[in-house]
From TrEMBL, chain A:
Full protein name: ABC-2 type transport system ATP-binding protein
PANTHER family documented for this protein: ABC TRANSPORTER, ATP-BINDING PROTEIN
Keyword check for Transport: yes
Residue ranges of coiled coil: none
Keyword hit for Transmembrane helix: no
Record's keyword terms, sorted: ATP-binding, Nucleotide-binding, Transport
From TrEMBL, chain B:
Spans traversing the lipid bilayer: 36-57, 90-112, 133-163, 175-196, 208-233, 303-325
Position of the signal peptide: none
Domain of life: Bacteria
Keywords: Membrane, Transmembrane, Transmembrane helix
Cross-referenced Pfam families: ABC2_membrane_2
GO molecular function list: ABC-type transporter activity
Protein name: ABC-2 type transport system permease protein
Annotated GO CC locations: plasma membrane
Amino acid sequence: MENPIIQLNGLSKHYGSKKAVENLSLKINKGEIFGLLGPNGAGKTTTILMMLGLSEPTSGEALVCGINATNNPIAVKRKVGYMPDNVGFYDNMTALENLMYIGRLSGIPEEKIAVKARETMELVGLGDELYKKTGAYSRGMKQRLALADLLIREPEVMILDEPTLGIDPAGIKEFLVLIRQLSRQQGLTVLLSSHHLHQMQQICDRVGIFVEGQLLMEGNIDTLSGNLFGKESYVIQVTVREPLANAQALQQELQQLEHVNKAATSEYGVELSCSQDITPDIVRFFVHKGLNVTGVQKKEYGLDEIYQRFFENNAKKHVQ
Amino acid sequence: MMKSLIAFNPFFRQHAPASPFRVMVRKEVGDHIRSWRFIIMLVLILLTFIGAMYVSLSNIRKAATNLNDPDRIFVYLKLLTTSDNTLPTFHIFISFLGPLLGIALGFDAINAEKNNGTLIRLMAQPVYRDNLLLAKFYAALKVIGTLFFSLVLLMIGGGMIITGAPLEASELFRILAFAVLSVIYVGFWLSLAITLSVKFRHAATSALTAIGIWLFFTIFYQIIVNMIMNAILPDPAYLQQDSIIAYNNLVLSLLRVAPSQLYTDAATTLLMPSVRSLGPLTMEQMAGAIPAPLPLKESLMIVWPQVTGLLAATTACFALAYFLFMRREIRT
């Protein structure tokens, strides 16, 4: 069902002659987890700020829950929770006080606030640290508190800017699982921005790749890799123990196989690009030939490769 | 329908959430009164207050029985203005310390929030951007107002116990007007400091700039005006009396660009009812005048330009802060 909760139409933001965001159009559906992926300075944060009405677009419009964010930022901010990339707290106040202050500002009635703040702290796993000053909080705890900040307001949309920055790997995993859980349980729409590919791969339904202010591509990870790498979606590497005696002939024969697009041989191995996953056939072929296979590796294109490919292209563009 | 009922019915209103502005003011006031810098300023002002009161109390008998002084009947005003020249009077102290108080409460209002990353956190909430600026100003003003009104009321109470003299209504109003004037004066420096805190990224820069402006106006400005005027003005010996007066007025007007001059002028007029004019008076104007205290209304008329000047400067600074802040990109 098409039900875009965030809709960007031709959004642009120029700082002088520098184009931070250029003609960006994007639709994000309700309940979706969308990853905005791009290197530093790609314009991710600028885009997010425009969605919240905190920055004025040079042209185009950002509709969040059907409301124009530039003209009516307060209404948008009532529905959207935003976690900035380097969030800060009032260090002289306890975590609970910090959270209650935000709760009050967002208009939660006074008599409900204490209970609600406590519940939210439990939810993000800070139940034991309620009365600690935020000055003494670690980076990961602050990140959780920032998430609590967002959840206490019961938003329809969560926008997280680099939420995993500065947390240790175990913490990141926990954090992402938490976000995914919350999104699934409460039907929240989540927009994440990051330059960490693997994390996005773990959690996002769809990703958009954002480079130099332009959305180069969007879709789920399978489509993305399909689009980018065309037919060579699967790469199979086979390593053998003895040097290949008749490499040329082997290459010829391999290329005859169905679904194989390209075969390249080296002294101790073969690399095959295939349009389908035919690893078992390849192994059988090698065994038949009496070659001593020591390893078979199937390379799937993850975001890493997608990303890499983009930067290569980008670098080429620059050189030209 | 139901919503409007809730909004206008006082029975329901207590359950409605407080407006973001009030929430912010509450937090800011709390922050101020717990902050070290406010406590230090408070101690400083209390010490000068006690010192000034001590000096004036020990000289009050002489002042209240001085037959040459038309203000001698106003014992409480005398308490604020009497000095034996060992210590300046309280309002002179405030003309020095008031700016410092205003600067201390405002110099990091916006840039500290920005540097701590709390500004963007606040702005992501459904609150208007100007609410924050207004809350910063209003909360500090509230604290300052409470401070000055408690001080003068303490002074009146203490004076009553020590001297036993009855308090005239006009005296009370003059003292309250003095407190209001002091709040406006500190408010000017506060709004200047807040403007600088919007302008400059670092709290230290904005504090130093504010202190620089303060020092310039308290020390250098008068010297510069006097130097320039001495260089420009012809020798008074060759001038007609009315042109001397005109030149004098010019010098005074220039000096009144400094907020501290406006404040001292206004405070002196309010606290000394016999002050009739803040400029030079000619013999014709003085002819037939009996040295007697002016009614409160007349004194207020004299200080009105000063008060307006201070208010205008405060508003101008605050408007500039608004202008700078509303158009500012808030990302760090």
